[in-house]
Amino acid sequence: MRALKRFVDTLAGWKMTVVSGIFLAVSLLLSVSGIEICIEPAWISVIISGIPLLYLSVWRIVYNRGISKISSALLITIAIAAAVYIGDLFAAGEVAFIMSIGALLEERTVNRAKKGLRKLIDLTPVQGRRIRDGTEELVPAEEIRPGDTVRVLPGETIPVDGMIIKGETSIDQSIMTGESLPVDKTVDDEVFCGTVNRFGTVDISATKVGENSYFQKLVRMIREAENRQAPTQRIADKWASWLVPVAVIIAIVAGMATNNIVTTVTVLVVFCPCALVLATPTAIMAAIGQATRHGVIIKSGEALEKMGKVDTIAFDKTGTLTYGRSGVSDVMPASADTSEQELLSIAASAESRSEHPLGKAIVALAKERGISISEPTDFHMDAGKGIVARVNGQRVVCGSERYLHENVISITDDIHTDLDVLRDQGKASILIAADGTCIGVIGISDTLRPDADRMISDLGKLDTEAVLLTGDNSRTADYFARKVGITNVRAELLPGEKVDSILSIRKSGRNVCMIGDGVNDAPALKTADVGVAMGDIGSDITVDAADIALVGGDLSKIPYLKWLSNTTVRTISFSIALSMGINFVAIILSVLQMLTPTTGALVHNAGSCFVVLIAALLYDRKYPGFETARPETTMTAPVIRTSG
Fold first, then answer.
1. Which residues are catalytic?
2. Domains of the chain
3. Taking the complete model, does pTM exceed 0.70, yes or no?
């Protein structure tokens, strides 16, 4: 059986198809010149290009179930056999040859679309420099274990996910995030398998290795995308299943009405659903290939087509519209006697021993701005309330309004006003007091992605509504929703309530896409018609639950994804309509005896190749948004607002 399969694959390849075409051309020349030879050259074309179709039709009859046994290959094989029966070998060879050309064209498009995927897979690191007992050894990448120390020299590919524990460098992350410039990395920064170390030597502590690495996770998703089939492909197969008996019936009736078996054969030839079968998978794979080039991993054609029907996109907030990390947003001294720098210095010094994320955010900003941080003494933390420490002889209290009251520290009306402003914006606040006097307040907030507002605006232009579904409090949700232009907000949702929200939107007759990053978003991703995971910080569970992943978490790719999906669906619909239109016209001309099997095959299959070319052009279609997009924004220090 394997030998037969190899033989059939050889016949279906480019070289043998070219041979088939040569013999078909010779047959046409001999026919035009009126020269007859003992063996008709078109026989060679029928054998070379017809045997793969015969093999495919028989294989489907044997192994497919139910009505799917009747396939487009069967109809084409019947048409070829009928043409041979009446002695029109050129028509038989032409149908087989042009069908082979269409299949090879599809294969070429698919291979081109997969080129980026193969390049990604080929970049899988094969070895790494492991450090043990101070000794460096070059070992296969699969032997590296979590916790091992790995040294990466300039120019080498990082073999595992890990954390830098020594050294500084710049990493080329373009294969993962699409960033055009290397990213500076230092101690405690995370690095990913498959990225390239450009400059300095670094030692990293391995965290995820082998199949658990982020790189291999992407490879698995890509392979899934290659192996899944789109619904429209299955629809095409269903169409072919009923087209076969319909074609046979129409052909027999036409033949009986005209009392001409040639009419019967012509109808069979022009009824072949070549374009219907070929154009759809070509469009799907071309679109998936283009998406991969732009950092969007689409797991299946089904997801692509469903995305084309989506009219509502639901967003999680933290880690999706925002970066998901706390940062200082406001520094608000209580009076002109205290400067921003002094307030930050006192607060950062007091919080320097704190493990609380808000305290760490204050310390991080002070370090970033080069503000001096003193070593605190008598440090004490009250969990959930605040901290007390002595800084340069001053007793400093940092915490909530209630905590300052517990420490008998009064708060002025101006500070109360500042607190109200921060609350209305959904921000956390830390009050700072020194020697019994409140000297200011610091606002802490998640950081909005700079392209979020443009992304929502672009979706609106694509007639797609945005909805915010978040577990955050209502004030925070409303603040960020106003920032990006979302009017439909549902806040303080548990994971199950997010699912209920998705279901309620779907019950209203809308098609929903859910975009999220956390484990709590996984149920909603599965419930939505289409789930999209933020691939840069999304958890393994979230990415696995999603149908599509955004590598690098670039929000500008969401309107692109919607545009590509819409364009693909329109292309498929146009291809199907065009192919059916060609068939309809050709059938009428056949019944009127204006076409012969030869001319019918030429008209029909030339139209099929044209339809496939239209689908293949999707790979190079340009998204208008990339041409008009504003320059990429680099987020550095948070914006500081001074009030006093």
1. 316
2. 2-116+224-287+566-624 (no CATH), 145-208 (2.70.150.10), 291-322+449-559 (3.40.50.1000), 323-448 (3.40.1110.10)
3. no
